[in-house]
Amino acid sequence: MSKKVVIIGGGIIGLCAAYYLAKEGNEVTVIDKTEMLDGASYGNAGMIVPSHIIPLAQPGVIHQGIKWMFNAKSPFYIKPSVNLDLITWLYKFYKNSNQNHVDNSIAHLKNLSFLSKELYQEFAKISDQFLYEEKGLLMLYQTEKVGEEEIRTAEIAQRFGIEVDFLDKNGIQNLEKNTNVNALGAVHYKSDAHLSPNLFLKFLKEELLKMNVELFPKTAIVNFKSVENTIQEIETNKGIIKADSFVVAAGSWSPEVLSKLGVKLSLLPGKGYSFNVSKQLDSPIIPSILCEGKVAVTPLNSTIRFGGTLEITNTNDTRINLKRLGGIIDKINNFYPELKIQTPENETIWSGFRPCTPSGLPIIEKSKKFSNLIISTGHAMMGLSLAPATGKLVSELVSDMQTSIDISAFKNR
Ligand SMILES: Cc1cc2nc3c(=O)[nH]c(=O)nc-3n(C[C@H](O)[C@H](O)[C@H](O)COP(=O)(O)OP(=O)(O)OC[C@H]3O[C@@H](n4cnc5c(N)ncnc54)[C@H](O)[C@@H]3O)c2cc1C
Questions:
Q1: What range does the domain containing 302 cover?
Q2: 66 lies in a domain?
Q3: In this structure, is residue 384 part of a structural domain?
Q4: With a 6 A CB cut-off, is 236 part of the ligand 1 pocket?
Q5: Residues 5-30 as b or e (16 or more Cβ within 10 Å = b)
Q6: Domain FAD dependent oxidoreductase spans what residues (predicted)?
Q7: How confident is the model at residue 69 (pLDDT cuts 50, 70, 90)?
Q8: What is the mean pLDDT of residues 273-286?
Q9: Amino acid 159: pLDDT
């Protein structure tokens, strides 16, 4: 039976949910407090990464994180604050960073990722306007130590059926013929893909409008009205909207939105930066991650997008940290000595917040407290990659259908 559904949050997760809900014949409205033009879902690196099957919460990550905290140019930082949300998040993250959690998560993440990639392939059949390409992903490393870690991770991926090549310096240069790559070796994940996030979201909005989905930018939720365990309507700064079902997909703001319903969610923003550079003849052509600096490199038509850093902070902290940005630029110039990238003008540097859960897994679930509320957030560094599958699962949850994959791991805990 067709339902009236309101989605709070018009980032890639909310818009993909709208797409699959509308496809199933539901009447869908998406509200977003911004213009829906430049949030986290727009300036990200555009990588679709079925290779990434290990959650952020894993053994060794805390030790590495503490080391990086003392380096102003490192890719990771936690903004210190005496704040219960941060303390709770850190405690939960610490509890999750173990092998058991990794072992229990891999198959779930892999199934979600592969479903998403299949759905991206379907989108790519409808349009070529968002520059979808399947060139894989190179994890480039410069040191033996990082190489060993990458190879270990890739061997686990191989055991789960993910296609991997192990490359030495010559192997890398056979793929990257235009530029000299200063790396010891690389893991080439052949199943990965990439696209232009800005163009994909433009395409998605056009498809939604064709399906009569209502998109309400500059519309923020003020409150929910519920009776017992059923939400009846939302009050926004533009008026009241009644619906049968409600989806919270408000990215890093999801805890704030859910607190209006008395629903607790441990989730913090992980700020990151990106900037674009015009492609030159000597530019790299394969999407890559520069492992020692965790820098993402995505060639897109006439530009290359570079992205990196993860600063656990709060959503008011929109300041660009130029030291950390300098760390990204140093790594790019070190890995690609011929590129000679300069610090971009301040106004051309983009920043966005990754919604990070302490388990490193997204949340895709029906609320325990409200029978007509779906929570869909916490995709951290993989929101673009996992969005189509998440959207499809949200649509299935709204319709009380059997979900395409087991979602028991994707819970608010
Ligand atoms: C530098 C960087 C690189 C990245 N690279 C990749 C990558 O290569 N691949 C990948 O898969 N992922 C990547 N990511 C992660 C990805 O961008 C995020 O996981 C994803 O964008 C999250 O999408 P979302 O829809 O959950 O959140 P958002 O895009 O943040 O959307 C949430 C929306 O909710 C709205 N909202 C908030 N509060 C309210 C309210 N009260 N009322 C109404 N609306 C509200 C916000 O305005 C926002 O538009 C990267 C992120 C960064 C920062």
A1: 51-98+136-186+267-356
A2: yes
A3: no
A4: no
A5: bbbbbbbbbbbbbbbbbbebebbbbb
A6: 4-397
A7: confident
A8: 93
A9: 95
